[in-house]
Hints:
Oligomer: single chain
Helix content: 25-40%
Shape: globular
Largest sheet: 5 strands, mixed
Bound molecules: 5'-O-[(R)-(carboxyoxy)(hydroxy)phosphoryl]adenosine, zinc ion
Order of helices and strands: EEEHHEHEHEEEHHHHEHEH
Amino acid sequence: MILSIESSCDDSSIAITRIKDAKLMYHKKISQELIHSKYGGVVPELAARLHAVTLPKILEETKEYFGELKAIAVTNEPGLSVTLVEGVVMAKALSISLNLPLLPINHLRGHIYSLFMEKETKFPMDVLLVSGGHTQILHVKNYDEIEIRATTLDDSFGESFDKVSKMLGLGYPGGPIVEKHSKRGNANKFLYTIPLLNSPKLAFSYSGLKNQVRLSIEDQEVLNNEVKADICASFQKTAVEHLMQKLKKIYKDKTIKNFGVVGGASANLYLGDKLEKFCKEKNAVLHVPELKYCSDNAAMIGRCAVDAFKLDKFIDMKKIEVKPRLQSFTKNV
Ligand code: KG4
Ligand code: ZN
């Protein structure tokens, strides 16, 4: 079995995954959302201190598996450096005390593997990754070869939801909140311009849309719940249309067999609906993780670690590094 640790942002999570069939034997996640919501976003140092308290508590519950462990896996990139360190330090300590090898796991690769929970790996897979830190279209050939087909030039999809929610005083994390308010709103009330609509760039940009929302908020004499709902709905529609427009452009002359959507924002049902239609048109199978594995969790890190274990991706304990920025997926097409 593999013990995996995730602490790249504000979720402390540990999982135990059986190597032979990828069965999830144990999984726990303690989210810090409520605490950070007071500040309107994640406070890195506070998140790190909370990981230092919660990770050891979760670890206590996994002791019965210690005798069966074959490796320790840990998210070491990308994420917040101070929170990643908490997981990596714990992984190193376990590696020394239990005399087990270490597997460094890229958090984004972990999200991709959330599609394969307790299942076989299915590659090649085209993937839309929509999280709080990233917005990317990836062509995943195998564990190592991941081509970035489009990425964001500034804010990410999930981050723009967080910022809109903050501007409207609705709370954190903004994604589920904005989605909920959108359901009551008129999506055609505010006519926001779709970012990069006439640009040939195969990329995403959300900072301009965020500014359009800010200006429209400043324009309102009364910002009641009805107006807020209309802003949420109009913003969500534009944010998703931007994603879909670039996605269609990228795959215009390409066939897709399997298409996956991963990351915290893959929980968005409005986006899911558009992706379903897109996949139907392309004759592709849409793969969506179970809701509980959309946001950050150690179960997806453990699932990824099963393949890492089989591919011998071990690292010398002295060489494992925390890399806050994305460094692995470098090949652009
Ligand atoms: O993958 P994740 O848990 O953390 C990162 O790796 O960043 O993603 C969190 C992000 C947050 O920005 C959150 O607002 C967004 O995912 N999110 C959503 C929804 N649920 C979560 N965005 C849009 N609609 C949602 N329903
Ligand atoms: Zn994530």
